[in-house]
Amino acid sequence: MLVDKIQINQVEFGATDTNQFSFTDGVLSFGSQKFATLKNFDSLQDFDVNRDIELVSVDNSQA
Questions:
Q1: Nearest Cα to 52, choosing from 2, 6, 13, 1?
Q2: Pairwise CA distance, residues 44 & 12, whole Å
Q3: Quick one: which H or E segment has residue 27?
Q4: CB 34 within 8 A of CB 28
Q5: Contact at 8 Å (CB) between 33 and 27?
Q6: Which of 6, 10, 3 is nearest to 57 (CA)?
């Protein structure tokens, strides 16, 4: 089964681990900062930040 992942640029967020993210009532947060609301919340009941978030290292400062 193909599962979508949310890719987050760890350079821009300053994230070192997916444990720094939380998902509550359809809202994705980094620390105490809410930054996204995921649609179709009912189908995301099993969303897990440790499984479904992928941290990527992309330095966009040169762009």
A1: 6
A2: 26
A3: strand 27-30
A4: yes
A5: no
A6: 10
